[in-house]
Amino acid sequence: MLIIVAGLPLLAAISYRNIKTLEKEEGDLQLAKAPIYLQSMLMQGGICLLAYYTGIKEALSISLRSEWNLLSIFSGLIFLGIALGFAYLGQRKKKPEGTLRYLLPETNRDRILWILAVIVAAFCEEYIYRGVLFQLLSLQIGGNFWAAIILSAIVFGFGHGTQGEKAILQIIPFAIGFHVLAVMSHGLMLPMIVHFLYNISVDLLFGKQITGQKQDPQ
Q1: 216: β partners
Q2: What is the rounded CA–CA span in Å between residue 78 and residue 57?
Q3: In whole angstroms, what is the distance from residue 155 CA to residue 88 CA?
Q4: Does the N terminus or the C terminus of the chain have fewer Cβ atoms within 10 A?
Q5: Domains in the chain: boundaries
Q6: pLDDT digits (tens, 9 = 90+) for 76-96
Q7: Could you tell me where the beta strands, DSSP code E, fall in 9-144?
Q8: Residue 105's closest CA among 46, 206, 33, 156?
Q9: What is the distance between the alpha carbons of residues 170 and 87, in angstroms, rounded to a whole number?
Q10: pLDDT 10s digits, 1-36
Q11: Alpha-carbon separation of residue 109 from 71, 112, 141, 164, 206 (angstroms)
């Protein structure tokens, strides 16, 4: 839990500071995307394994299967639409803030690794934050359901600090929404799928605007 609560936000803050320092020194950056995606998958996969071990050791009950009914499916679609609506409003700025423009793929070759990274992120982050961390926090604070949800959402937001300060505040409500989907469907599969669809849709719909460049088809 210490790694998730303190370690990941610290690494994200350091990465963000390094990117902004390079940006000041060199202007717009051309970062190699493949190493970033590979590093992300390895780190998230490793932490997910630690979370899985912790879940077994603490005898946590985490269900990956969601209950599929009209309410849960409709809720997932509504949440996805709202999230993409906010993404649309954000990308309309002439000069996007934060560092997301350095993280999205710009070539088809990078996009293959990006898709794999998004699959890993959707599975691992939902399992870590909506599964293990939520239950550990709930145990620590005496079973207070909503307090555990809000705390885990805040940690999730700061874990994405690589994207900038404003992104943290925007991501926290999304994290709460993902948890509501998990509660409604009694499992993590629904938020995993919505999480994946959101990340993929942001690139497909707004990737060119966010990166501010013409994408290379190669």
Answers
A1: 107
A2: 36
A3: 25
A4: C
A5: 2-211
A6: 999 999 999 988 887 766 555
A7: none
A8: 33
A9: 10
A10: 777 888 888 888 888 887 778 777 666 667 788 888
A11: 38, 6, 46, 26, 18
- Of 106, 121, 128, the residue nearest 42 (C-alpha): 121
Amino acid making up residue 85? G
Rounded to 10 degrees, the C-alpha dihedral 137/142/147/153 comes to 10
- Whether the CB-CB separation of 90 and 204 falls below 8 Å is answered with no
Alpha-carbon distance of 107 to 101, in angstroms, equals 13
Integer Cα distance of 133 and 99 in angstroms? 26
Task: Print burial letters for 22-57: b (CB count within 10 Å at least 16), e (below 16).
Answer: eeeeeeeeeeebeebbeebbeebeebbeebbebbee
